[in-house]
Amino acid sequence: MTETDPRRPSRRLRGGLTLRAMVPNAITAAALCVGLTGIRFAIARDFEQAVQLVILAGVLDGIDGRAARLLNAQSRFGAELDSLADSISFGVAPALIIYLWTLQSLPSVGWFAALAFAICCVLRLARFNARIDSENQPHKSAGFLTGVPAPVGAGLAFLPMYLWMASGHHEIFAAPILVAIWLALIAFLMISSVPTLSWGKLRPRRNIRLEMIAFAGLLVAALVTEPWLTLVVICAAYLLLIPVGLVSYSRIRRPREARAAKDSGAPL
């Protein structure tokens, strides 16, 4: 049969979604299922497994976008599915896991903190979808993100649990009021307008690329041998990079604003 032969089996599904486009969407669906399964393990009081599943959902979330670009299978359907899955895997699931872990001992305050985190995650993703076709995104055009991304926010929200598990379940890290304050802080960072560094912005110099490869290998080894302590270090490093992002963006923003004012003829 030739390429134009009408008898040739179509690679496009009846609804218009190609088989090639199904791959990243299937990964997204898998991430959603993994995140939801984390809630099941939290109900069974297996919090280590619950946290690991949300982290795995984050890994899958990072893979699906790259798979879509690699296969040239980006679609609006995929973008909407990804946001819906993220709102559950990185908003609802972490909020419920942390609530079942310690916040339920503060029924009102703890539940409001969990609600604030889940709602802020959804609002962040809604803001992202609303701006997806907008050209006026100063942070994005400068190579920065606006606020803390949803998967990173979920990882940061679990920091008290990392410390709790790394210390052998020390009760101070499970103090409900401290965890509620921390959860509210991360919720604020997700919907804030704070410019944060994106992966595309981090470009190591050529003379340290081999060292970076070695560091990545050691990081994976550390995650396998001492996962919770390593995750604490990763969270601390990310939090320290937030002021770096603020300073870096301020250095870029001033010349950009000056050029824009000059082009528009406005007085500086």
TrEMBL record:
Catalysed reaction equations from the record: a CDP-1,2-diacyl-sn-glycerol + L-serine = a 1,2-diacyl-sn-glycero-3-phospho-L-serine + CMP + H(+)
Superkingdom, natural source: Bacteria
Every CDP-alcohol phosphatidyltransferase C-terminal domain range: 209-243
EC annotation from Swiss-Prot or TrEMBL: 2.7.8.8
Gene Ontology MF term list: CDP-diacylglycerol-serine O-phosphatidyltransferase activity
Pfam families attached to this UniProt entry: CDP-OH_P_tran_2, CDP-OH_P_transf
Subcellular location as annotated: Endomembrane system
InterPro entries: CDP-alcohol_PTase-I, CDP-diaglyc--ser_O-PTrfase, CDP-OH_P_trans, CDP-OH_P_trans_C, CDP-OH_PTrfase_TM_dom, CDP_ALCOHOL_P_TRANSF_CS
Primary localization class, coarse: membrane
Membrane topology of this protein: Multi-pass membrane protein
Swiss-Prot/TrEMBL keywords: Lipid biosynthesis, Lipid metabolism, Membrane, Phospholipid biosynthesis, Phospholipid metabolism, Transferase, Transmembrane, Transmembrane helix
Transmembrane regions listed in the UniProt entry: 21-43, 109-130, 142-166, 172-196, 208-225, 231-249
Protein family per UniProt: Belongs to the CDP-alcohol phosphatidyltransferase class-I family.
Protein name (Swiss-Prot/TrEMBL): CDP-diacylglycerol--serine O-phosphatidyltransferase
Organism: Novosphingobium anseongense
